[in-house]
Recover the amino acids of this structure.
């Protein structure tokens, strides 16, 4: 666990390298939305969350739900690097019999709390985890990452109402606001703006941050801790495909994995970042 | 007058009792606490009771989260909303990870009555049966309901229990057991068998009495465990009696009848007739009138039984019914 920003940035780069290798080996998967969430998951798993990779069912652990389940690669890499399972599994993503399924599966992968993949269902499940924690009088938190296309799903707003109604102050939703979905920019497909105002209207405490800035991320996560009677939504402005110049801001890298040639180019870029 | 118990009333009482014994039980509903009778639990254990309002998808997702954290959620709404509105949530969040969620859906079938087609469910057994890892139970009386609810609380994994708006006659003892995958013979006979669930068990027993007067001895099986089915008991009935009629307050597509048809066609091909709703929606009406309209009556069963006996005695490949969209009454 560290609050050393330089160290965390270095971990983030390592996470990116592993995501790209994992996806290239798999030959399919979601590059853009995995890369946009790297700093968020790095901050949570390597610093903010109370958890024990050697004890995935530790009852006093904070929990994380990847509601945007197609971001599975970033979750798997972070879990593997944390020590939930051997990084040898990285090469098996999406292969028959692998513990790393196409979308997160709680029955096959240590560290995965619930099944996601069909968008819009994670926040409801996170609320359930949070209510259970309160019933058990545990001071633990539930973090849930949603996509900005994902919040087009009505169930998200049902869950938003529920979290406020049941005063789930232990729920912290983070919206990976990279502005893009499969068929194009979110504003063109089905405009979900204004995002902040929507969450506020649903009674949530809201914070806007640069989703690639660790200082801002931690400041927001810590602020969320202090909100006592309502849940918090952190709207994280991110870049889809962040860290790989030819993927950044590109719609087509939503559901695409890097070709061998693309992998080589990407790794060169990230290597340069490492040595700086 | 035979004693009648409302299966949902029994559920409400049993749930509150279980809540006292097991503190991990939590209850969720979608603005239907009164109709589903979970209100009793809600009043007794308000901090373990969650009304999600008119938001069934969220309700199922929250139940999944609660189960993932070790609680035992009982989730109740009408069958059409539980199985339909939230089908995908049940699939993705509950069945795929095999979470310990108990869906107790009331108002199954067409006896929902005056509310009409939007609120009747003729598809729910089929929708739930098709889900891997899901158990499907429809108890036929109040005491069996009690037993099924107790079973559900102790069983690990997803369960769907279908209850009714109607009161059913009591045929089982107060402390009868419920065994998963086990059906029960509620009347003996060797001329043909009725394999029934829910209200149709009682309709079948009435039909059996009428047929008995004419010397026709009908076996009646209560197939409350719809998935998994009691294959042995039903196949034994097929072999021993030579003809099967299934009955349910549900479409003849995908429900109990289909499950029995699947079993028989692969193992013991005797004449079979599925009685139920013939691939149409329910509609507004008094529940008695609706049962009559859709041919779910002892008299209709008697006619069907006589027809199937002809088929059994004559050439089994003889077609006794032409395909049509008419109701069962018009066909017989």
């Amino acid at each position: 666990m560290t609050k050393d920003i330089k160290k965390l940035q270095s971990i983030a780069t390592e996470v990116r390298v592993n995501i790209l290798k994992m996806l290239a080996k798999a030959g399919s998967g979601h590059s853009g939305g995995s890369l946009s969430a790297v700093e968020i998951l790095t901050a949570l798993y390597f610093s903010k969350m109370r958890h024990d990779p050697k004890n995935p069912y530790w009852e006093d652990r904070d929990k994380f739900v990847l509601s945007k389940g197609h971001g599975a690669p970033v979750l798997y890499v972070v879990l593997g690097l944390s020590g939930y399972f051997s990084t040898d599994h990285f090469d098996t993503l999406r292969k028959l019999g692998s513990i790393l399924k196409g979308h997160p599966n709680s029955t096959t992968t240590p560290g995965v709390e619930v099944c996601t993949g069909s968008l819009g269902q994670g926040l409801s499940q996170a609320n359930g985890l949070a209510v259970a924690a309160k019933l058990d009088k545990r001071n633990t938190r539930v973090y849930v990452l949603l996509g900005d296309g994902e919040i087009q799903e009505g169930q998200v707003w049902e869950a938003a109402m529920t979290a406020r109604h049941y005063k789930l102050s232990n729920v912290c939703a983070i919206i990976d606001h990279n502005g893009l979905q499969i068929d194009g920019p979110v504003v063109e497909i089905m405009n979900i703006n204004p995002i902040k105002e929507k969450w506020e209207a649903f009674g949530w405490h809201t914070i806007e941050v640069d989703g690639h800035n660790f200082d801002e991320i931690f400041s927001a996560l810590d602020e969320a801790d202090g909100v006592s009677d309502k849940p918090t939504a952190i709207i994280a402005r991110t870049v889809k495909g962040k860290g790989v110049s030819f993927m950044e801001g590109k719609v087509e890298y939503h559901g695409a994995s890097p070709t061998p040639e693309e992998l080589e180019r990407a790794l060169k870029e990230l290597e340069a970042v490492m040595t700086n | 007058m035979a004693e009648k118990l409302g299966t949902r009333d029994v559920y409400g009482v049993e749930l509150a009792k279980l809540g006292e014994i097991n503190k991990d039980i939590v209850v969720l509903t979608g603005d239907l606490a009164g109709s589903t009778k979970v209100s009793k639990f809600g009043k007794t254990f308000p901090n373990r009771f969650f009304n999600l309002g008119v938001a069934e998808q969220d309700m199922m997702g929250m139940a999944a989260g609660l189960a993932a954290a070790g609680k035992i959620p009982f989730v109740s709404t009408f069958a059409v909303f539980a199985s339909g509105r939230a089908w995908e949530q049940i699939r993705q969040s509950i069945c795929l990870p095999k979470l310990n969620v108990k869906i107790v859906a009331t108002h199954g079938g067409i006896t929902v009555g005056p509310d009409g087609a939007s609120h009747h469910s003729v598809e729910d057994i089929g929708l739930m049966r098709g889900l891997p890892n899901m158990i499907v139970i429809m108890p036929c009386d109040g005491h069996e309901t009690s037993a099924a609810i107790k079973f559900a609380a102790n069983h690990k994994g997803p369960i769907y229990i279908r209850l009714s708006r109607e009161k059913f006659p009591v045929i089982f003892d107060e402390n009868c057991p419920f065994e998963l995958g086990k059906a029960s013979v509620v009347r003996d006979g060797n001329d043909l068998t009725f394999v029934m669930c829910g209200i149709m068990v009682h309709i079948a027993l009435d039909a059996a009495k009428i047929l008995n007067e004419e010397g026709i001895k009908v076996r009646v099986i209560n197939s409350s465990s719809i998935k998994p089915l009691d294959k042995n008991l039903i196949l034994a009935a097929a072999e021993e009696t030579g003809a099967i009629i299934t009955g349910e307050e549900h479409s003849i597509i995908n429900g109990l009848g289909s499950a029995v048809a699947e079993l028989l066609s692969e193992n013991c091909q005797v004449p079979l007739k599925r009685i139920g709703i013939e691939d149409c929606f329910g509609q507004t009406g008094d529940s008695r009138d609706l049962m009559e309209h859709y041919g779910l009556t002892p008299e209709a069963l008697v006619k069907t039984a006589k027809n199937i006996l002809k088929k059994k005695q004559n050439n089994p490949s003889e077609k006794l019914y032409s395909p049509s969209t008419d109701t069962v009454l018009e066909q017989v």
Observations:
- Residues 184-316+324-331 of chain B form a domain with the Rossmann fold fold (CATH 3.40.50.920).
- Residues 318-332 of chain B have pLDDT under 50 and may be disordered.
- The radius of gyration of chain B is 19 Å.
- Chain B has 14 helices and 14 strands.
